[in-house]
Amino acid sequence: MRYGDKTAVDGLSLSVERGTITAVLGPNGAGKTTTLETCEGFRKPQSGTVRVLGLDPIAQRRELLPRIGVMLQAGGAWSGVRAVEMLRHMAALHAHPLPVELLVERLGLEECGSTPYRRLSGGQQQRLGLAMALIGRPELVFVDEPTAGMDPAARRTTWELLQELRDSGVTVVLTTHYLEEAERLADQVHVIDRGRVIASGSPFELTRSRGHATIRLVVTEPFPPDAPAGLQADLGPDTEVIAINEQSLLISGPADASTLAKVSAWCAHHGVLPESLTLGQRTLEDVFLQLTGRELEA
Ligand SMILES: Nc1ncnc2c1ncn2[C@@H]1O[C@H](COP(=O)(O)OP(=O)(O)OP(=O)(O)O)[C@@H](O)[C@H]1O
């Protein structure tokens, strides 16, 4: 997918199993929305093939639309429309809609039933957007950054709802740049960067595949530029040392006493004092950093 001479999605390849939650995870501008909008039939790819429920999203749009639900990243409702009116209108467009009251209650939209769309808070607009995606009982829903701008309670409700949908056989494809969202919700995660898939797997597979543990070290003074390579040599090939910046390192591999002793000796050798040393299980953030050398949330 190109916009003028800018390539937004470049040879990206992924497939999604029915009845699962798939997260497309990546930093801002990675190409997540473009990928989803191409699957939804809103954008025509300049090359490549997209099939959704076996259908071509553009050539077979009329067949596909009644079977999918779409929650856009923003907008999708008229600015003056009230939440309940919008849902009733959407319900009228579908053959077997869910009861409007059910969605209003599940998504906590009671208090904004008579408020015009443009006056709803960001989180309320998101919840209405999700209700609009679900009202037609879709087999497959695309949700673009579903919990951006939501407060923690609304985020939990949304996660529960998406899990219930999956448990009832609905396929969910979501984009997110929240690691916690991908880790907690997704059966399958595709990490994308610069328009390409750079890693795919379950959260467990992705976080356990290249070493179980990570050590994050932050020191009080900048270390010499070649110092991380020295630590890498001391720790050996089972461990990977990545310089996040000139004062912090990510060390991925066995976090045992011998590794910790070598890390301390390295600090002493370079005359740097640890400000923090954190041991933990590897996260999707660490996976992204290892693959790209950059931080996902940066
Ligand atoms: N309509 C457009 N015209 C020109 N460039 C665009 C357009 N839409 C997206 N882009 C560019 O294409 C790239 C991918 O954008 P896209 O919105 O798909 O990324 P994203 O991963 O969804 O980002 P975000 O998390 O910020 O929503 C970005 O560099 C963006 O600036």
TrEMBL record:
<keyword id="KW-0472">Membrane</keyword>
<dbReference type="Pfam" id="PF00005">
    <property type="entry name" value="ABC_tran"/>
</dbReference>
<dbReference type="InterPro" id="IPR017871">
    <property type="entry name" value="ABC_transporter-like_CS"/>
</dbReference>
<dbReference type="GO" id="GO:0046677">
    <property type="term" value="P:response to antibiotic"/>
</dbReference>
<keyword id="KW-0813">Transport</keyword>
<keyword id="KW-0547">Nucleotide-binding</keyword>
<keyword id="KW-1003">Cell membrane</keyword>
<protein>
    <submittedName>
        <fullName>ABC transporter ATP-binding protein</fullName>
    </submittedName>
</protein>
<dbReference type="InterPro" id="IPR050763">
    <property type="entry name" value="ABC_transporter_ATP-binding"/>
</dbReference>
<feature type="domain" description="ABC transporter">
    <location>
        <begin position="1"/>
        <end position="219"/>
    </location>
</feature>
<keyword id="KW-0046">Antibiotic resistance</keyword>
<dbReference type="InterPro" id="IPR027417">
    <property type="entry name" value="P-loop_NTPase"/>
</dbReference>
<dbReference type="InterPro" id="IPR003439">
    <property type="entry name" value="ABC_transporter-like_ATP-bd"/>
</dbReference>
<dbReference type="GO" id="GO:0005524">
    <property type="term" value="F:ATP binding"/>
</dbReference>
<keyword id="KW-0067">ATP-binding</keyword>
<dbReference type="GO" id="GO:0005886">
    <property type="term" value="C:plasma membrane"/>
</dbReference>
<dbReference type="GO" id="GO:0016887">
    <property type="term" value="F:ATP hydrolysis activity"/>
</dbReference>
<keyword id="KW-1278">Translocase</keyword>
<dbReference type="InterPro" id="IPR003593">
    <property type="entry name" value="AAA+_ATPase"/>
</dbReference>
